[in-house]
Sequence to fold (306 residues):
Amino acid sequence: MASPIQNRYEFVLFFDVENGNPNGDPDAGNMPRLDPETNHGLVTDVCLKRKVRNYVQLAKGATPFVPLEAIAEGRVGHNIYIKEKAVLNQVHTKANEELDYPKDKKKAAAADKVEGRQKWLSGNYFDIRSFGAVLSVTDYKAGQVTGPVQFNFARSIDPIMPLEVSITRMAVTTQKEADSQSGDNRTMGRKHIVPYGLYRAEGYISPGFAEKTGFNEDDLSLLWVALENMFEHDRSAARGKMAARRLIVFKHDSALGNAPAHKLFDLVSAKKVIEESKPPRAFTDYKITIDEASCPDGVSIEEPWN
Fold:
């Protein structure tokens, strides 16, 4: 049975988009998210976690529920808690039933029952075990879990220039629309794209929180695989061509860590290798470098995809 991870990690993920919208903002007509002061593109941590969840759900499917006794021994499941059309109260009711706890909500609210449901949910749901969750739903509460895996917002290396592209549809929705257009059934629309953008996301993995959720070495390996493949199964006309390009991992030889995260992140840089006046349009327009000579003692640099 896999045990919770014992080492602290930080990581830097580079991914890019070509002629697509990596993360639209619903409050801005679904335009690509921007830092308004610099015009650098943004992708939220929630968006990245969503793609990891989707990959794990696709790769693992619905796994059988693991009993609490087996979870205590290190067995886990890979179900996804936050997914499309999930009814969270039903998930908590199922947890209560699997644990054979009282159906009466007052009795089920006892502290030991809340803790038991939390452990059962963490053991059976990969995203709770990884990212944490607020488990205080209406029925059969299970407290709140802080996950060991956390992301910062991703930011583009250079400013981006979003484009609004007109598109047409050779159909209309209603007969009235067809009659009002003199036989021309075309309707107009808009889509937003980024011609090209290389984005950098940074993340953290805490063994302290992993001890509480049960996030283990197998989960860690699955996370690296998910980051590599999360765009391969998330294709759509809106997102264009997206690709995970490089993953750089800093592994500490202790649980508390051997260097501040920001100092490790500063060792990784991405710079254009084309003329400064030209806008980047491909991953080969950049060079990613790692200052390995300045890496602190007790920290190793790994690239899981190589």
